[in-house]
Queue: 4 jobs
Job 1
Amino acid sequence: MCDICGGITNPEYEQQLLTNIQRFGWTVQFIEGEHGGRNPSYAYTLGLSLHGHPEFITFNCHPDFVGRELQPLAESVLAGRQFDEGDHLGDLFQPQLLRMPDSTTHLYTANTMFRRPGDPPIEALQLVWPTRTPWLESGR
């Protein structure tokens, strides 16, 4: 269950996010998907845009593991690395990065908290995980 569903107010939740960002430099916003529905769960980083870097977003994720998926990328950004669409991530893990054309819907909290009036939406890079397994398809 999410914190807000558990009774925390929106201002308390926003303060919790800001506290995590101040402590760690970033945090994760998880959005639960519809069970059996067409909208999958997703999660995105909050705070990397404060360092001049796009936020990262990933879909079809599990709340217990998504932080570990995003942590290597976020820590690399905080250490000074810059990522962009098409960058090779083999030294970290296997997904590809695609630039999201408009983050206003999916990165609602990031845009609400960090987007200045009149500015374009917060930039985001989507982690796209490979789904094909060529070695199984070839019969090996």
Job 2
Amino acid sequence: MTTETRSRYTAAKLDELSGQGDPFADETVAAMFERGEVGDFNTLMRFFSTAGHKLPEGLPPSAVAFLEATAMPPKWVDWDVMERARLFFMDNAAHINTGLSFAAMPATYAVPRVARLLASTHSMDYPSRRMANTGQFVTYLMRTNAFEEGSKFIPAAQKVRLLHAAVRHHLTGSGRWDVARDGVPINQEDMIGGQICFSILVLDAMHRLGIHMSEEGAEAYYYAWRVVGSILGCDMTAVPDNLTEARAFADLYLSRNLGPSEDGVRLNNQLMRMYEDVVPGTLFDPIVPATMRYLIGPTIADWLEIPRGPWDTAAKAVPLVLGLLETVEDSSPLGEWALDKAGSLLTAFELASLTRGRVMQYAIPEELKGEYGVRSQAPRTNRWVPPVPSPA
């Protein structure tokens, strides 16, 4: 690590980032709440899921201004690198999803303030919703037309950015979020940290699984998440430029924020149960905690109270099995096609299982859990149901 890299990321710098939100999105959401426009916005935005389509009539003016200003990807995007990222994803779809599901997602629960924030939303009573949203988001990102007219990625990213702003609005207004201790909810430190978790921690997991990756492919995958960070409102003057800088940020971010919490344990237990429910029967249930322990390491696993079991040793043999499959892939064009196809089908199956075949909606939450001081008077059901499919 160079002196220049070390000096860029310091505790003081991350303290500064923890006090920053996303001004454009925050102002947009505040205006809609002040005017009572959030319900209408959510209703109308169900009919806007494809880039290039005309915005629905009746949207609040502040929302229209935001959506029009953020409708295009950043001008600095290198599309050759983005194409390499897409090919990297196609070649490693199943491995990337394994890293997201069994390493990156649990790691976010091991950051106590992030776990507390996630626990503030009703949707986290149903962890499949977050996994489905994340899986759908990544799938949209890695499609050929992700940034073109007709894609679904940009509208999804715009909605996620406003959703984050709404959570900040609720928590800061509730008086129950300690800004002095934890910074602004979903602050720039955690936004960049989330981008790091979904990029470099996934690459780390793939490396631990024994997946062979080129440096060019890994850098392209990180670059794609850097583009995502820009679209989601990250401060690009602070976002790492490459994997070397990303490692420096990750080391500092995780060392100062990781730790045990009751919210983290509860959320991860729900996540493990959800994974176990995806596969019928109980024979393979123990492989879920074993895989998590293997990929995130014993310290974080113990903080999250991931149980030990007889499959812990078996999980260490996974790299050998994947190595054999890679040998088949490298030695035969037919084998390469078959394994890539199998990975694509597995990814589609996982996403279909989580979404129940529906298109996920990203809506601005009008309330948080009662203990966070923001409640609505509308009756609630005890089980989350996926939304109806969006119009084509």
Job 3
Amino acid sequence: MFLQDEYAGEILRSPLALDASLSTPLSPRKHPRQQRSRATCEAILEAAARILETGGAGSLTTNLVAERAGVSIGSLYQYFPNKEAILAGLIRNMRREMLADFRAAAKLASGEELKEAVAILTRASIAHHLRRPTLAEELERAEAGLPLDQETQVLKAELLGIVSAALAERGVVPQPEKKAFDLISLSQGLVGRAIRLGERDLDDLHRRLCAAVIGYLNGADDV
């Protein structure tokens, strides 16, 4: 039996990655409540994002993040106990943005036939990867080496639920959750790699992705 939370915990995760950093604290030490505190956290996360975009995860240190954010290392540690917690915060933000893209797409696709719904949802996937492609690649790689925190699990489960509901509503059964997992993985792999390699013809990329999705759905139950 294929459940949403089972699949959400496996999207883009290496099967060997679960042994890494299992005891590493990933949650913020405290949550900012005042505007100044929120601005500090946002500055820390944005500084870390830019470091990842220019130098990759190997260049990320808490000292460098604090320096780039213009805050003291003590201020950084008030909110993030280590660099893994900073990465987890960026991953949560990425998943929130992706979920918002797919919520809007699912609303737009309401009442449409399967082919048009696929076209709308796949555009959302491409739009997500285009927002900050280098950062998305770095965060997806980092996510594979970190244990999933509860909020990220919930976000990924909701994304899976949106796609599986869209399939089920259009008669794509049985096992819409399994098919949704496959399609999310297919989309992330194809789009992420194409953009990373410099794909510029996004209309053609969208056509290829739609063809891959429809081809999978047409043959999924024949395997």
Job 4
Amino acid sequence: MITRSNLVEQLREYQIRSKHDWASASFFSSTSNLGSSRVDVASFVIWELVILAFLVFSAVALYFMHLTRAIILLCITLLLLLCMKITKQVRLARKKRRRMLLPLSM
């Protein structure tokens, strides 16, 4: 049952979420993350730093002729990149579902 207090609370949350217009300086992202919170931006920056570190470690391993270690590190990097993309899609879907909870008149 929709009550007035629930509507007010949902509207307040929606206004707070829409106030944060942070654009992630994401190297791996194809689109900017408008409407994402600081936590989202911080987590994706950490993901990207870890992925970049694995890429550097694999290049160093290749330099020292450790081909198997370089391939393993590249596979881990690709898995992390895939996890980051899946996490991003799940969060966007969750945000869209939360927006749909608001009545159309709001």
